[in-house]
# Entry
Amino acid sequence: MINIPDKSIIDCHVHLAALPDSNNGCLISSSMLKSPLFRFLLWKHKLSPKDPRAANRKYIQDLLGELRASRYVQQAVLLGMDGVYTNDGRLNHQATEFLISNDYVLQQAQAFPNEFLAGVSINPQRIDAIEELHRCAEAGATLVKILPNSQQFDPGHYRYQAFYRELARLGLPLLSHVGYEFSRMGKDQSAGDPNRLRTALEAGATVIAAHACSYGLMMYEKYYPTLLEFVNHYPNFYADISALTLPNRLGMLLKLRHHPEIFDRLIFGTDYPLSVFHLPMWGLADFSTIRKIMRTTNRFDRQYLVCKNLDLGFISLQSILKTTHTLAPPIPTPLLASTV
Ligand SMILES: [Zn+2]
# Structure
C-alpha cells in the first residue's frame, strides 16, 4: 500500500448528475428519464424530477455532505457528459440521451473550490472541440472525460490527433471510459476497447483508463493483458480504480492486488453515486475488518478501506497533475484570447 496522508486524496471519478433547468445547459431524453438506472438515482437521493432546480441542489448538497464527512478523501473531480455529434461536428439532439454541460461542471467547481475540481467532457468529434478545450482549460478544468461507447465516436481515429496533442500541451489528462457500457444499451461496444486509446497515448496525452480497463461483464477480464502492456509501453498511461468493488468488475480488483509494480499507475476513484460493495473482502479478510467496512457507509471511505485492506495500492490524482502541468509549456495568450 502506498502511504497517503489522511484526508488528502482526490477522487478522480465522481459523476455530476443534473436535470435540465432551462439555464444549466443540461439535457435528458424522456426515455432516459424512465430508465431503471435513472429512476434508481432519483429514488436513492430522494430527488423529484418535477422540481429540477431543487433536485440539482440536493444532489450537490448530498455529495458535499458525504465528501466533507470522509476521513480520507478531500476533493472530487466532477465529471460532465458531452453528447453525440453528427459527422460534420454538430450536436445530435435526437441521439443524445443526456448531457451534463461543461458550464455546469465549471460553475460547481468554482462555487466549491475546496471540494470540487472540474472534469469537463468534450466529444472530439464536435466541430469546436479544440476551442472548447481552450475555453475549459482557461476556466480551470482539471481533466477531460470521454465516454466513446455512448458518445458514439471511435477514440482511435487519426482525425482526433490534433485534439489529443492539444490535451498533451495543456497538461490535461484524458479520462476515458473503457469496456462495456451499461447506461445505454445497443451502442457500439467496440469503442470501449482500450487499444483505441493508443492514438491519444502516442500523441503524448496523459490517459487514464476508467475502471482499470475492466470489461464489466463479470469475471471475464479480456483487457487485463492490455492494461499490463500499456503500463509497460506508455509512461503516460494510468488507470483509475473506480467501481472495482462492483460484482461485475471485482475480477479485475482481485487480479490487480497481486501487481504492486503497477500501483503507481492506479489512481483513486469511486464512480460516485454508484455503491461501493464489501463483497470483494469476503474470504480475504477477517470478520472484524469486514464488519468495520460494513459499518462505513461513506462511499469514499468504504472504497479507500476495501482497497487498502485488500492491499491494492494506488496514487491520488494530484501526483500526476503536477507532472503533466510541469511538463506542459505555458498556454500562449493569443491562442486563448481568440476563444474568449
Ligand atoms: Zn463512471
Observations:
- Residues 13, 15, 271 surround zinc ion (CB under 6 Å).
